[in-house]
Amino acid sequence: MSSAVLPHPRIAHSHKLGILFLISGLWTLSLLDTAGKLLALAGYHVVMIAWMRYTINLFFMAATLAPLYRRRHGRSILQSNRLGLQLGRGALLLGSTLIFFSVLKIVPLAEGTAMNFCAPLIVLAISPWLLGERSYVSRWIAVLIGFSGMLIVIRPSGDIPPYGVALGLISALTQALLSILNRKASQADNPMVTLFYGALVGSVASTLMVPFFWTSHTPSMVELAILVSTGITSTIGHFLQNTAYKHAEASVLTPFFYAQIISACGMGWLVFGQFPDSITVLGIAIICASGIGIAYIEHKRAHPLPPADPMELV
């Protein structure tokens, strides 16, 4: 008689830690999104918000990550095997941040986050052409189901204005392209190098841009604290996410990315008094279900069950 193979207790514990770190990181990043929305509504330009976010992020990384990387690997964190890729990824990351903060200025937090959840579905749709991956019927079914959920979220009778929908779709597309560049960067460099270049490019580029978008009024102590928090929450959130992958593989963690919708709904309700209606919740649930479903299918495809031992069937 065959029996299910249970994971080793240490592996199971490590996976639980990884999931805990991931969800903690995602919920911390929801604080970043909340701060960005607050500042945008207060009249701060998204370039100024991004500048503070990336500059503080770079400061923390230069003080902690760069020395740690040199001790571990004996070389500078600036040494990349594909510098052009890292610079391009950093530029796209900054652009993605600017677009998403613009989305959050006009779209509720939960709906804005949900639209970004369509990014993995876009990756599945374009991967046969950009990544040369084989196309499967299951992938296309997941894409169609996911986009049907998005259509429910952005339906004409909903609360999202047309330009908010357009920005949300552009944001999801940039997230999808960023995901593809992340894959390529992970094959070329250590994740620490990729994280550092993201902060470096974002900080340098936004520093060159911010004089043209500087807000004239002096920020209050509360606004200044919120501005500073964008860099802190960004640093902590991405650190926790990076730590999660040290305890569990991507196939284990991927379904739990959708836990961010819980924090997005919670922060949207607590801070802005916005909570999605029942129809929007249905659309969000469909998007999340399609993403989790394809993650499960892809995991099964990558890790097929071994053939049964004939002796066990006797």
Automatic annotation (TrEMBL):
This is EamA/RhaT family transporter. It comes from Herbaspirillum rubrisubalbicans. GO terms for cellular component: membrane. InterPro entries: EamA_dom (IPR000620), EmrE-like (IPR037185). Residues 17-154, 163-292 form the EamA domain. The chain crosses the membrane at residues 50-69, 90-107, 113-131, 136-154, 160-181, 193-214, 252-272, 278-297. SUPFAM superfamilies: Multidrug resistance efflux transporter EmrE. Keywords: Membrane, Transmembrane, Transmembrane helix.
